[in-house]
Amino acid sequence: MGILTKKDLKLITDPLADNNPITVQVLGICSALAVTAQLKASIVMAISVMFVLAAGNVVISSMRNIIPPKIRIIVQLVIAATLVIIVDQVLKAYSYNLSKQLSVFVGLIITNCIIMGRFEAFALANTPWKSFLDGIGNAAGYGIILVIVAFFRELLGSGSVLGFKVLGNPIEKTGVYAYGYENNGFMLLAPMALITLGVIIWVQRSRNSSLIEEN
Amino acid sequence: MEHLELFFKSIFIDNMVFATFLGMCSYLAVSKKVATAVGLGAAVIFVMAITVPLNWLLDHYILQEGALVWLGPEYAEYDLSFLSFIMFIATIATMVQLVEIIVEKFSPGLYNSLGIFLPLIAVNCAILGGSLFMQSREIPSFSLAFNYGISSGIGWFLAILAMAAIREKIRYSNVPPALRGLGITFIITGLMAIGFMSFGGMLTGGTEKKAKKVETVKVENNKKAIDLADNTIEIKN
Q: Hey, where are the domains in chain A?
């Protein structure tokens, strides 16, 4: 651990489980639910958020002494919007189909509460290097939940992982389909994302009882 | 008829919370009591009714490809649509500030009830989402954009009100400890979303026929365009 001290490492590992932005801090849920019908789309989404959050945290934190407190929300929104435009244009240029599929949800990274929440709570009070690590850690915590939800939804809903038909071909009845297994199309519908996330929260809180809420 | 259809569609079928999950953060944070939920819901309706039509004007007269043509024919080729995110969010943030100042000046009673919620709204994804959907669904006229803003706001209001009422009651039931709070809220919202999906059948009878008609018209137009293109190629040759 040459560059990373123990404290720095904690900044990255903490948001992965015990201080996860989605399941514990309750931030950034809108986009987490809407893009998770496919694993590929959610991985792209997680990488985009990681870029915006890490870069934005560094910018905000290096400007933290000259931003007037009264207009800080607008400054934060403008910085987030600029970074999101970069992501959007890159996606449109290199993978147009994926950017069509994510539709407005790339734009909605601007108002993703994780971005504003971390700008406000961390970057405004800490040095650029620490803020960078915090950005990476929180975006990774967000990404992990996205990937878990998307993995189960794609596997149970369309019988594939990353587009590969791992369970066999449902039309020619190969693999598990030969034994009468059917895809559960319900998993692809929007409400099941909420219920899957609810179950993830349930599992996490029964393993770590300090997270349980009073009522 | 068009207005009525859009109105019901954006409240029930394309409900902001249950169909697209927009504004979930404040939806989860503020739905603990009915009174505060009503306050935030009203503020969302108010702000959406202002920002969606305003962003429609921006989109049609500044941002779209060829929208600047009113400045003169030499501007016809400009396409500023890549700026739409930053323009929309700037409009929303300034409008929220402006509304806050005006309401504080002219109606202190309303300000006190909406007060703390107004600044929260600038970062509510439902507001930006409304403007972005307005752009991507290509809503054709100003009055329809106004209608869309109000009705999506009402849809959001309905969702948070229902959730707050359920959460007030659920305090008396015996929920497994690990599910208390966030977990059970997610699962209830999921079940409500499944319920709301049944509204999808409400409009299909009429719209299917319409959609087919539109498609055939489009195909004909395409044919004409292809014919025209062929002709021009021939002329060039």
A: 19-151
